[in-house]
Design goal:
The complex is a heterodimer. By secondary structure, chain A is mainly beta. Chain A contains six helices and 29 strands. Chain A has one domain: Methylamine Dehydrogenase, Chain H, CATH 2.130.10. Chain B contains five helices and eleven strands. In chain B, strands 2-11-10-5-6-7 form a six-stranded mixed β-sheet, with helices on both faces. Chain B has a three-stranded antiparallel β-sheet with strand order 1-9-8, with helices on one face. Chain B has a two-stranded antiparallel sheet with strand order 3-4. Classes of the chains: A mainly beta, B alpha+beta. β29 of chain A pairs antiparallel with β8 of chain B.
Chain lengths: 438, 227
């Protein structure tokens, strides 16, 4: 041990600062949190309650995902938060010890401890005054870890429940830090994703509370309401939190996925209403351009692309379309010329898609929004797991969330025992903790 | 011996997977088959930092001054009255993220000294492993790094002393357990460096992927411009 300090010091002296910025990603996770690159043990599914089904409440459902464990393909735990709040998206804290989960209707945020026992998440904090704290922001949507904080991209505001909204920051301990309203001309919000290597953040745009809490059939028939969707992606200086450019992408650009190789200076997004795949490319002058890349299905049929997932090697993009329940896979090796290489019907409807870091395991859930689900008639609710061999999907397990009395499954996040350490002071419980956490 | 072999494998895999891919100094149960991916090499960041004073650094949280030990073993405050601080939590036997933090602190130390700003800014490297990192080890660290400005190397008198500091800053440090539930020497933490203003307000937090001395320097200059 005596030589360690000097060895550390020597390393520090010769360490290349230029090469010190590591921002590889777990396909869609923030560059600021540890990545799960091996076999996930659990999939945490943030689930919207259905009246009359089970306890009817929003809940975090933990599903075993490791085929070497006895709980593979089974519901391991379910933590209800009480009531329905339009459970939607959730995100991991920067130390991956907590999962923040939002409700789009009443702006409630629930924080779960997923580290003390990854198999049994515990609800440890609830924020119920989001609108008051943030100065009128409602609809906390995206939860994106930044160092020491949670960046929340919202969808709406409490004044008119329209699309004007903001980015909000909270500390990891759940204390409000600041609100940054979206810039003029690009007031709508949805996703926020950072490329640390470029110090650039992209935000996208959806619609406000008055639209996303409305029956989809009614909304589609209301031409005036259909005007109230976002058509912008904003390029930000992330460190300064200053908007630099507003890019036009018609038809509600939703999920954003930066390429993961730091030499790849582009991102993908899909426009829900126009069913187009778009790229956002950094130009030689450092500014960005938005480029329409491909149709997703038949835009005339409005399949409504929702979630996208980019492989860790930046070659393969999965695109879910909600209304036809399809996944389409694009080869994006040439990011300006994507080619569809595969498609499969996942169910009567499909929303979220998540892939393991190695791209071999793909998970799908069915629910988009409580008022939009079942638009096509059938309203099945599921988590379905597949393997991907580069050419096709092969089913491994599926869970019927209706039959299980759980609800509408939405976003998925992965957990693993190997990512969890024990709080100092708890070592005394050693053997018991070790048995529990392995 | 089985345990020793496992530690060795684990350390290597974790260096590969969590230290480099994630930038987190985590020593997880990264058994063979759980981890496969080497990260691509990271070239230099491709941006010019925003100009000092052109942006806001809101108070994220407030922290106390706390008493720790300097390399001579004497009690000293972690935060000095009236001085901006850049605080880095490390442990000296850490092989991955901590050296990155220390290298960044060293570069920042030079940048501040070159600009004559070192009088108003204190860098602090704090060990959260006080049982192994005693004041004499911190003294050797200081000697090896040869600070140009006010860069202090502190440790705590005991575990309880540092745990109180870590709680205040919101820096998690965990212990990895061995296969039989025994505590191992391996500590789990996500690297964080804190910028603290002269009144004890945390104004920015840096972690891997964000440890750019240019940004940190401009943040210090932004705080200097406030006063």
């Amino acid at each position: 041990m005596a030589t360690r300090p000097l060895a550390t010091a020597a390393l520090a002296i010769v360490f290349s600062l230029a090469g010190a910025t590591a921002h590889a990603d777990e396909t869609c996770q923030s560059p600021y949190l540890p990545k799960l690159v091996g076999q996930e043990d659990y999939v945490y599914v943030w689930t919207l309650g259905i009246e009359g089904l089970g306890d009817g409440s929003d809940k975090l459902v933990t599903v075993g995902a490791n085929p070497e464990r006895d709980d593979y393909g089974k519901v391991v735990a379910s933590v209800s938060v009480g009531g329905r709040h339009e459970a939607h998206h959730a995100g991991l804290s920067d130390d991956r010890r907590f999962l923040w989960a939002g409700g789009l209707d009443d702006s409630r945020i629930d924080v779960f401890d997923i580290a003390t026992n990854p198999a049994q998440p515990a609800l440890v904090n609830t924020i119920t005054d989001f609108e008051e704290q943030t100065g009128g922001v409602v609809g906390p949507h995206g939860f994106y870890a930044i160092p020491g904080r949670m960046l929340i991209s919202a969808l709406s505001n409490g004044k008119d429940h329209g699309g004007k909204t903001a980015l909000v920051e909270y500390t990891n301990a759940g204390q409000f830090v600041r609100t940054i309203w979206m810039p003029k001309g690009a007031e709508y919000g949805y996703d926020a994703r950072v490329n640390a290597h470029l110090n650039r953040m992209l935000t996208s745009s959806f619609t406000g509370h008055q639209n996303y809490m409305r029956k989809l059939g009614d909304l589609l028939g209301d031409a005036e309401a259909m005007k109230n969707f976002g058509d912008t992606v904003v390029v930000w200086d992330f460190h300064a939190r200053k908007p630099l450019q507003t890019l036009k992408i018609p038809g509600a650009p939703l999920e954003i996925r930066w390429a993961l190789d730091p030499t790849h200076t582009w991102a993908f997004t899909s426009a829900a209403l126009t069913s187009k795949l778009w790229g956002v490319f950094r130009k030689d002058d450092g500014r960005f351009e938005a480029v329409e890349l491909a149709d997703i299905g038949d835009p005339a049929k409005v399949p409504l692309p929702v979630d996208i997932s980019l492989s860790a090697d930046d070659t393969t993009l999965f695109v879910d379309t909600f209304l036809d329940g399809m996944v389409r896979v694009f080869d994006v090796t040439d990011p300006r010329a994507p080619k569809q290489i595969y498609e499969r019907k996942i169910g009567s409807q499909v929303n979220m898609v998540s892939q393991s870091w190695d791209g071999k395991r793909i998970y799908f859930t069915s629910s988009l929004l409580g008022q939009w689900d079942g638009h096509g008639g059938e309203d099945e609710q599921f988590l379905k797991a597949f393997t991907w061999d580069g050419k096709q999907l092969t089913p491994t397990f599926e869970l019927d969330f209706r039959k299980l009395g759980l609800g509408r499954p939405h976003i998925m996040r992965f957990g693993q025992h190997g990512l969890v350490s024990v709080r100092r002071g708890d070592e005394a419980a050693g053997p018991g903790l070790a048995a529990r956490t392995r | 011996m089985r345990w020793r072999r496992k530690v060795s494998t684990r350390a290597w895999l974790v260096a590969l997977v969590l230290g480099l891919v994630a930038g987190a100094e985590a020593h997880g149960d990264a058994e063979p088959g759980r981890a496969h991916v080497a990260p691509p090499p990271s070239p230099a960041p491709v941006f010019e930092p925003p100009a000092p004073g052109s942006y806001e650094l809101p108070v994220i949280q407030r922290v106390g001054r706390h008493q720790l030990l300097d390399p001579d073993g004497g009690p000293v405050p972690l935060l000095e009255a009236g001085r901006v601080a850049v605080v880095s939590f490390v442990f000296l036997s850490c092989g991955h993220a901590c050296p990155q933090a220390t290298a960044t602190m060293q570069r920042l130390d030079r940048l501040l000294a070159e600009r004559g700003l070192d009088a108003g800014v204190g860098l602090v490297t704090v060990s959260f492993d006080p049982q192994r990192d005693r004041p004499e080890q911190m003294a050797r660290q200081r000697e090896a790094l040869q600070p140009k400005g006010r860069w202090r190397f502190l440790t705590a008198p005991d575990q309880a002393g540092i745990d109180e500091v870590l709680r205040d800053f919101g820096q998690h440090v965990g212990v990895w357990l061995g296969p039989d539930g025994e505590a191992t020497p391996q500590l789990d933490h996500v690297l964080k460096v804190f910028l603290v203003d002269a009144a004890g307000g945390v104004r920015n937090i840096y972690s891997t992927g964000y440890l750019d001395p240019r940004l940190m320097l401009n943040d210090v200059l932004t705080l200097a411009g406030e006063s």
